[in-house]
Structure formats: C-alpha cells, structure tokens
Amino acid sequence: MKDTDIKRLLYTHLLCIFSIILSICIPSFFLENFSILETHLTWLCICSVSVTAVNLVLYLIVKPNASSKRSSISYKVTRFLKCCIYFLMSCFFFHVIFVLYGAPLIELVLETFLFAVILSTFTTVPCLCLLGPNIKAWLRVFSRNGVTSIWENSLQITTISSFIGTWLGAFPIPLDWERPWQVWPISCTLGATFGYVAGLVISPLWIYWNRKQLTYKNN
Amino acid sequence: MQKISVLLFLAWVSFLFYAGIALFTSGFLLTRLELTNHSSCEEPPGPGSLPWGSQGKPGACWMASRFSRLVLVLVDALRFDFAQPQPSHGPGEPPVSLPFLGKLNSLQRILEIQPHHARLYQSKADPPTTTMQRLKALTTGSLPTFIDAGSNFASYAIVEDNLIKQLTNAGRHVVFMGDDTWKDLFPGAFSQAFFFPSFNVRDLHTVDNGILEHLYPTMDGGEWDVLIAHFLGVDHCGHKYGPHHPEMAKKLSQMDQVIQGLVERLENDTLLVVIGDHGMTITGDHGGDSDLEISAALFLYSPKALFPRVPPKELEIVPQISLVPTLALLLGLPIPFGNIGEVMAELFAEAEDSQPHSSALAQASALHLNAQQVSRFLHTYSAAAQDLQVKELHQLQNLFSKASADYQRLLQSPQGAEAALQTVITELQQFLRGVRAMCIESWARFSLGRMAGGAALMAAACFLCLLVSQWATYPGFHPLLLTPMACGLAGTIVCAGLLATTGLKLDPVVLGAMAAVGSLLPFLWKAWAGWGSKRPLAALFPTPGPVLLFLLIRFAAFFSDSFVVAEARATPFLLGSLILLLVAQLHWEGKLLPPKLLTIPRLCFSASTGQSRHSGTHALGLGVGLLLCIRLAGLFHRCPEETPACHSSPWLSPLASMSFLLLHLLAAGIPITTPGPFTVPWQAVSAWALMATQTFYSMGHQPVFPAIHWHAAFVGFPEGHGSSTWLPALLVGANTFASHLLFAVGCPLLLLWPFLCESQGARKRWQHLGNEAEARVRPEEEEEPRMEMRLRDAPHHFNAALLQLGLKYLFVLGIQILACALAASILRRHLMVWKVFAPKFIFEAMGFIVSSVGLFLGIALVMRVDGAVSSWFRQLILAQQR
C-alpha cells in the first residue's frame, strides 16, 4: 500500500462530499421554493441521483479493483442489470427493516421508500461499484479480517457509519421540540447523510493513521 | 456454594433495592403537612369586630346564617357539559345527538324561569381527580396531594378540620346516603347514614336506587339539617360504557328526575347544591389533569332569591374548593381551619336589599373573614413547616395587611364610596388567589436528603450487582455471603432495641435503610480486603461492550418526558437494534454463515464451526421472527393521553395479546444460541428485561393511573367482592404486572435453554460439542445428549451461574429504577413530573418488586427441581447397586 493510494481515496471521498453539497446548493437555482426540509423528497431524489452518478463516474475513472478479463458487451449489460436488481432489492430490504423497526406500514409509504433509496445509495451503491453484484464478496468484506484493500476498508467504514447515523437519527423523533426536521423520515435521512459524510471523512484518516498495522494479503 | 446461601444473597440484594426505593419514595412522594387545628365559633379568625349583624342572632357564628338547611347532591363524575344548557336549535339544524348532552332539562328550565334563584358554574377540580381526593377537597377546602391517589382502595379518616366536623360540632343533623367512601372518611359523623358499596364499577344502579329509596322519605321526615346524597351511577356508567353510550343518557335522565323531585320539595330556608366531583375523559376514565377530567358542574338553587343579578352570558369558572368557605358562611359555620378556597362573593350580596352599597359591604365582609382565616392558616402552617416560599409568603402577608387596613377604614366610615369597597374586594380576592397559586406551586414538598439517600442506596445496590456478578464465577467467593446478613440483622436488632429503650420514634423506612447500609458496608469492606491482595482490580469490572451502550441509552431515555411517553415505541426499537446487532456481531465473528459461502480460506474459525453453522442459520431465522413479533405486538399498544394524534389499537383485548406473549417466549430463544455453558451474556439478560417492558405495553398497559385495567378486578367475581379490598387489588396488580412476573419467573430459562437446544442437533453432533473433559471421562457411554444434566453434574458451578444470572437481571432492572428515581428527583419541578415521571417511577418500582419476587421464585423453583432430580438419581444408583 502506498501513500498515493490513500491520496486517491481521499480525493474520491472529497468528490463524493462535494456532490452532496452540490445537491443541496444547485437545485435552488433551478427550482423554486427548494429547501431540504420543505421539499425533502425532491432533495432525496436529487441527492440519491447525484451520489450514484459520482460513484459510478469515480469507479469508471479510478478503477480500484482489477478489471475482469471478460469484457464482452453482453457480460457488461447483464452485470449492469444485475446491479440494478440488487439495488432495488436492497431498497425493498431496507424498507422492510424500517417497518420492522416501527415505521408506519401504510401511511407515508413514499417517504419511507425514498428513505430506503437514499440509504441504499449510501451503502449498496458503493458496494456494487466496488465489489459488483457478488453477495459472497459483500459478506466477506463485512466480517472480521475480511478486507483485502484500502478501498474495501473505506467501504466498510462508510457503510457502518451510514447505518449508525441512520440509527442515531431516529432518536430525536419522539422529542417534543416540534421542529420541522423531527418529522419522519427527515431526521433519519439527515442522520444517514451525516453518517455517510462522516464515514467519508474518517476512513482516509483512519487508514492513514493505521497504515503501519494494515496489511492486505491480496493487494 | 449452598443453594440456600444463593437464595439468601439474592433476597438480601433485593432488600437493598427495596430499602432504597422506600427511602426515595418517602422523600419524593411526601404529603402536605396536615394540621389538626380546628376553627371554632368562639374564636374569630382575626382581630377586629365580626361582621355587623352576626352577634346575638341565633345560629350565627362568624356570620349570620342565611340558610338553615342544605341539600347537597353529589353526582360522581358530572362533567360540566353534561349539565350545560343546550342552545335551542333552529328548525333547519339537526339536533345534537350525543347521549350526554342536554339531558338535565330541569336545570335549564330553572335557570331560564328563575334566574335570580339559580346559577350554574363550571367548577375546576384540582388533580388528582380521584373521588376520595375530591371528597377531601370538598370538605376541607385544601389541596389533596399525590400520595393519596394510591390509597383509594383503603381510604382513611380525615384528620383535618372539615365541613362535616363543623356541622357535627354545631349540633346539626347530617344525614348521608350513597357511596361508602364517606364511611371511611368521616367515621361516625353522621346522625343517619345509608352506605352502599362503591367498588363494583359494573354496577350502575345499586347505589342510586338505594339512595332513591331513602331520599324522599328522609326529606319529608324532616329529621335533618344537612342532607348529602352521593350518586355513583354516572361515574360507573362512564367506567363501564364511556360517555358516548345510550346508557349514559338514561342515567342522566334519572339524575334529572332526582333534581326535579328535590326542587319540588325544597322549603324556603333550604339551599340545593348539585355538584360533580370531577369530570371524565372521552373514554369515561378519570384521575389525571386533562381539561375534561377537571371540569365539573356546580349548580346552586334556592327557593328564595339568591342573586342580585341575572347570570352573565358566559358561564363563570370557579375553583371547586370555593364551595367550602361559601357553604360554611352561608350555613353560619366557621370556615374549616385549613381551607384555602375563596368565597363566591356573589352569593353574599343581599338579593332583597337593592342598595348597592350594603350589598358590596356584605361581600367585602365575607371575603375579609375568608382572608383572615386563610391568613391565620398560612401563619400556623408556615410556623409548622418550611415548605412555603418565604418571599412569596411575605408579599402575600403585606397584601393582606393592606387590604385589611383598607377594610377596617371603610368600616369606620360607612359612607365610603362604592369604588373604594370594590378596590378592597379586588385586593382581598387577589390575596386569596395568590395564596392558592402559591400552595399549588409548593405543595409538592420534597425531602432532598431522603431522595439522595435512596438514590445512593439504589446506585450502590446496582454497583454491588455488577461486582458480584463478576465475582460469582471465581472460586473462594462463598464465605463472604453470610456475613452481610448477620451484620445487617444485628445492626437492625440493636437499633430497634435502642429505640425501644429510649422511646424514640423512628421511621421504619429509615430503619430499613440503616440496616441496608449497615450490611452493605461490611460486605464491601470484607470483599475489598479479600480481593485486593490477590488479583488486579481491572478484572473486577465487565468489559464495556455495545450492550452497556444500550443500557446507557435506556438509562438516559428515562430523563426525557417525551421518551417516557414514547417508551412503547422506543423499547421495541432498542430491542430490534439489540437483535440486529447480535446478528451482525455473529456475522462479524464469522459464526453466522457456513464458511463455504465465504471464499477466502484463510479466515480462521473457531473449533466449533460445525456446530455454529447449524445454529447460525437457525439464529438468523429466529431473529427475523422475533423482529416480526415485536413489530406486530406494537399493534396492541394503547395510546398515552399526551399524544392526541394517535389512535388506540382496536385489538386491545388481553386475550389476543396472550398469544403474542407466547410467541415472544418462543422467539426469545434467539439471544440464547450464543452463550457458552454456565454463563448468560449481558445481551441475553438485557434483551430479556427489554422484552418484559415491551410485553407490558403490548398487553395494553400504560404507566399512568387512568390506564389501569380496573375491569381485571371482576374476572371471576362478576358480583363484586363485598368489603374486601385486598383481592381486587391483587387481581388488578396481577393484570398490570403480569409481564414482569412472567419474565422474571422465566429468567432461569436463559441459563437452561442452550442446554435444551442441544437436543435439536443429532447425536453425532454431540461428539464434537461435548465438553472435552466429560468426553474423556466417559467416551463410550455417551449416547444421548445430556443437555441440562450437565448442570447437575457441577452443582457448584450451577449455583454460581444461577446467582450470576439473578444478579445480572437485578442489575438491569435496578438501572431502570435508578434512572426513574434520578429523573424524578432532578426534574422534580418539571411541568410533567406528576403526569409522567412520578407515575413512571411508581409503576417501575412496583414492577421491580414484582420482578424481584418472581425472580426469587423462579430460581427457587429451579433449585427445588434440581434437588428433587438429584435425590431421585441417588435412589436410582442405589437401586442399581443393589
């Protein structure tokens, strides 16, 4: 592992953060009455799209893992379709989890689903970009001693911090402060976003601090 | 370690908690100081001449009596809108069809025909709106405090000065009929009484019909000066059906007929008072402080004209206790000593006398008497207790002396302008209202020392649980066990002996706390001495893990009223998180899924891979099932009153939730697949305790008093219980704390379950799984999985494990009660303390007591079974040898 790798990681992460900031700032020039809290669903869609796009572009440019040997068009198309299906499945999976955690079942379905979409964007999309539609690799990355590169390590950190942010985001909901951001699912989506950004910031730093201890066999 | 010493130790730890809870409760739920002073005719409330015209007249005391007789009709739970006159609707509008509206037609008719004779008020009761507290307030004129709310089952005689006592002292004949709560409150005070049982909430008619049987004959008989009739039908109808039921219309119509009949029989010197002691919520319950509960109707009528003016368009709102001084002065009695109500001045304006000046003077003199009495009470009270705020007290006294001086000046020069009189009246009213506000403010008096002591004792007991649960598995621990009990017992006996000899009176609560501290300190000292020399201290404390974080979050959540109210949703959230965390942790350790799914071979697995592969997928399924159960159980919640937007579940029937309870129990196997033998991990214990709370909510309970399921008292006793109060209390308690009891008794399952689960694996698995030592001892004979028999083989470890389990469970529960206590004490001036924190503390304390008793029973049961099986085995072996 070289310092250049860590630098590249840092730059990509900064770009991701930048895309989130842009998704907050840019739409207000084009859309009237745009604000995160009031037109929350719109912002969710925009943020999700921009983060996905940035992730894809970065993946295509940086190519963190060795490209597969087969590169026929049909293989790429099936791979892409598989990725889409995985993404949708993860959205539904998160939706079910939210409902199990106490989200309303029938009311606010759209809100809950978009929340699932944004959480999938923060967690599943980077996984798909980095590991491809390969459940086994995912399971490997999220277990002890399972990571094989700094990219996977940072993926682990950002994903877990996104989940923790989402989880913490649920706590203000019962409080009686009567703030607009306490409405379901705004606090949770904001928590997820903060968690994701925090993960993006923390992971290069953490890897940099621990670069002596980290050894990846397959790298 | 002996079984008996384990049980004794657990009992001792529970006792520590009880002592802490009792000490805290005695400091937190203090009652107002009850003064036993009495007002009397001979002793006017203050210096200065008594109002003109009072001396020399027969039946006059502080003031000349205006009525010689009184009929007080107390209709329990007569909410204000039940009696509110309905505007006559035009032909186009549809008539209002609510069953409780516009049923008291006679009131409306009287108010229209005789506006100078009758008046309807909206009276505001002070919380708690339970019948006994209201009766106390309505006779003493004071503010009953929270602690009385719990003693509704066994009420006690009123020691403070009250109207009934004044009436008896004045030699009036008081006849009572109705609710038998009065019998306990005023034993032997009535010259004639017809009591009817009040507890059977299902029974709408016994009390009312009983009253009606005696009411008119008594009235016509004339052997009475004051007649009190307490009707319960409306209240019971509310409890049974709620106000939106046709039965309520019938009941109110019956009350209407009663009032009609009374009005026809009234003589000129008689005053009729119809009052509701409190209101009811839309579900027909009461006890809290919502608007519907505290608004009650108050109706006054006299055959001779009472009021100089016609009633104003807007109905007046008066505090309920205003009735006490008003009635006292109208009947020519001294105002009860502890009264802080304000006379309704309007009633003292002479109606026949058209002169505005003399009418205002009469009002001012009544108010002045009232203010003198309140000021005397304040003086006596602040000398006896220090809980009233000195600064405010001083201000009020200044206000009173100024008003009093003004009043005296006006008396000397009777030609004074009416405007000056009005100022005096306003000043006196200001004083009386200020006193009332101050009393409401400060009559939640806390004893900080006791609260701190109780909280410290609970914290120490929690700490002890934590420590000993770590020690319990180390050898050489048991000799410590019996010393604290001996010390504590000896200390208590010595203390009690000393007290008996000196004749000092000491609180049993303080004595208990002293015993607890006296036993705790030697134990810790001895443990410290025994420990410190041998091993490093770091081994004493459990390593902090995510579970401790969960416990911390739970601890912190008790400090927010929003989280206490939303606990029914927060608990499943935490429980779900705990389960998912467990699954994630299993996966992280590589124990959840079979290794062939994971492509990298260098991942090292523990030796028991083969075993955990099977149980891993099993655990995943169980986890999902448990999450589903928790979410579905959320459908059985009941709405707390603080969240108006929420709808209670239509499936609120206890029977249906029982099946979910069973599901819970089955699915609770999940946290159990992880532990190694002989210890139960913190995750499992915390999840178990959370599950107990969750079940409490999914059985339709809420930690507030109006939500208690009183109907449970009638299960199996549809006819009621007669005079016994223990049985219904027990039934209601069993209904409310069923989940605590079940989960506590079932707690040893956490230890036994992993061994039972072994039977699911086939025999071949046993060969790998069995513990190595035993496999070596008897490798060939092992054909059946031995399951929990392994526990029996090592009785010492078994006992230690049971002790550890019990202590861990007590620790988790103790943390909750400690958090409740701390929250209640820190936030004791919070707006929500009587509505949220105090009820939560009481419920949590009751739950803790029930749980600890249940835990004790459960562990004793397991030990008993173990002992029986052991003796049976011995017999078998003996028989074989023969």
From TrEMBL, chain A:
GO biological processes: GPI anchor biosynthetic process
Membrane topology designation: Multi-pass membrane protein
Pathway(s) per entry: Glycolipid biosynthesis; glycosylphosphatidylinositol-anchor biosynthesis
One Pfam family it belongs to: PIG-F
Family matches, as InterPro entries: GPI_biosynthesis_protein_Pig-F
Subcellular location: Endoplasmic reticulum membrane
Chief place of localization: endoplasmic reticulum
Transmembrane intervals: 9-29, 41-62, 83-106, 112-132, 153-171, 183-209
Keywords noted in UniProt: Endoplasmic reticulum, GPI-anchor biosynthesis, Membrane, Transmembrane, Transmembrane helix
CC per GO annotation: endoplasmic reticulum membrane
Protein name per Swiss-Prot or TrEMBL: Phosphatidylinositol-glycan biosynthesis class F protein
Species this protein is from: Vulpes vulpes
Encoding gene, per UniProt annotation: PIGF
UniProtKB/TrEMBL annotation, chain B:
Main location: endoplasmic reticulum
Domain of life: Eukaryota
UniProt entry keywords in alphabetical sequence: Endoplasmic reticulum, Glycoprotein, GPI-anchor biosynthesis, Membrane, Transferase, Transmembrane, Transmembrane helix
Pathway noted in the entry: Glycolipid biosynthesis; glycosylphosphatidylinositol-anchor biosynthesis
Keyword Ribosomal protein found: no
The keyword Chaperone is annotated on this UniProt entry: no
Transmembrane regions: 6-30, 455-474, 480-501, 508-525, 537-559, 571-588, 619-639, 651-672, 737-756, 809-829, 841-863
Signal peptide location: none
Localization terms from the record: Endoplasmic reticulum membrane
Topological relation to the membrane, as annotated: Multi-pass membrane protein
Gene Ontology terms, MF aspect: transferase activity
InterPro entries: Alkaline_phosphatase_core_sf, Phosphodiest/P_Trfase, PIG-O_N, PIGO/GPI13
The family this protein is said to belong to: Belongs to the PIGG/PIGN/PIGO family. PIGO subfamily.
Protein name: GPI ethanolamine phosphate transferase 3 isoform X5
Species, as recorded: Vulpes vulpes (Red fox)
Organismal lineage: Eukaryota, Metazoa, Chordata, Craniata, Vertebrata
Gene: PIGO
